[in-house]
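To: structure subgroup
Subject: Chain for Friday's discussion

All,

I'm putting the inputs and outputs inline so they're searchable in the archive.
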Amino acid sequence: MILKGKMQGESVVFEGEWGQMVSGVVLLPGVVCGSDSEADCEVLAWKAEDRTPHGYSQFKVVTAPRHLPDGCYTVTFNGIAFSTTKQSGWWIMESLS
């Protein structure tokens, strides 16, 4: 399912095939590293409902330079580093545990 999101206050409203849903989501600056490249990016991070050490349950790179090739990357945002993948030109949403 593809969701289109827009900011509404401090949350993002996602519109999908089942209508709208509002989630506690924050847009954070980050850095993506991999494939011999490093670039600034923006990360959409879902706030965790439980008490995780980092405070987020999922994240997705939403803006990064288009020239970055498909592959595995490390994304650092808000003092946290996680692995992610760019596949067929799209950044994959990752779950954090």
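Points worth raising on Friday:
Residues 25-95 form one domain.
The first strand starts at residue 4 and ends at 8.

D.
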